[in-house]
Design a protein that fits this description.
- With 441 residues, the chain is α+β, with helices and mostly antiparallel strands.
- The chain has two domains: 310 residues, no CATH class; 105 residues, no CATH class.
- It contains 19 helices and six strands.
- The chain has a four-stranded antiparallel sheet with strand order 4-3-5-6. Strands 1-2 form a two-stranded antiparallel sheet.
- The chain is globular, with a radius of gyration of 24 Å.
Length: 441
Amino acid sequence: MMNKFLFKHIDNSALVVFRMFFGALIFLESFGAILTGWVKRTLIDPQFTFNFIGFDWLQPLPGPWMYVYYGTMAICGIFVMVGYKYRINMLAFTLLWAGTYFMQKSSYNNHYYFLMILSAVMVVMPAHRYASIDAKQNPEIKTNSMPNWCRWFFFIQLFILYTYASIAKMYPDWIDLTVPELLMKAKQNYILVGELLQEKWVHYFVAYGGILFDGLVIPLLLWKRTRKLAFFASIFFHLFNSFIFQVGIFPYLSLAFAVFFFEPKSIQKLFLKRKIFYSEGEVKTPRYAKSFKAVFVIYFIVQILLPLRHHVIAGDVLWTEEGHRLSWRMMLRSKSARTSFRVVDKASKAVIPVKLDDYVTKKQQRSLSSKPDFIWQFAQHLKRDYAKKGVDIEVYVRAFVSVNGKPSKQLINPEVDLANEEWSHFSHHDWILLPNQDENN
């Protein structure tokens, strides 16, 4: 039964067209990062990079080499689009994008994570077997069909993503419009629409429209009777996000996924008129079927469980940030903070002044002031930096953080030497004070 579901062949027009869209979009993402100065601000200017913990060995290339790095990704995008040495270029982009994702988190968002896992899956998809240079040079690989799992991967992955995004919004500060108001207030200087975005009805639309759209869009796209309505709603929703929140290629990538929801015959007629439509429905079970099914199931179990991990970690993830990443928690809170570091020479007990501007950029300071993992990493960096000078130090932090405009509370226990604390990915750190603990300090 499962073999028939996964390995039944269907027309591959949607995957072929998506490959072209995807290649164009990753080209724009990579080249655009150079043109807009993102590469310079995020990877070249900083003296110290906040990589994912455990990836200290993964650092930006020196000097202008990060431009070459991103230029290479852009070239990979073009080759993916035209289907030239597709798997090699798709794999190269995946590795390079994973590298830039794990080497810095000052500009973290879930869209970057999604692009990484999507790129990895695209490596193994037969997206280059029609309308590609590869198929022209090697006619033996040319085909009009693909296994059904290729389409269902997108259905399941997108359902998980959007469902978690919807559920995450169902908390008091979103429901009572606190967060939407703060998000829109930051856009009040936008030309033409700045004042409009301050209207109460817009905040209601963002809050409740966001919950409903994320929760319903995939089921509505799957149901033929509501598919067109859901697609037009998607166009408005994603263009709104693109203009207001400027989230890169994600809105357009989301719209590109629509090719999998519409009837394959419609996609073939619209984009690939010369292509022979495949309708035979053969079941072609590969020799590695058992291994594939195991990987397919395990992958989605991980995707379902990973966003839930914050529920088994003490404290509110909005406050502690523990379990926030890789969980489709998008644009859910606004933070402000006042944070200072006190460095003490262990031998002399002398206090050594620390000026953040000497170590990190203004962009990095925004995350460093309110996110515990950044604070811990900076303490470790200071420890290593002074160790090179022959000085053994202790690092203490005073951080007062406000979440969603609420009164500031102390985030870090100021009596704990963070330079000598260990990091755990799956448990709460006692030096991160919970709001009720702050009241007792």
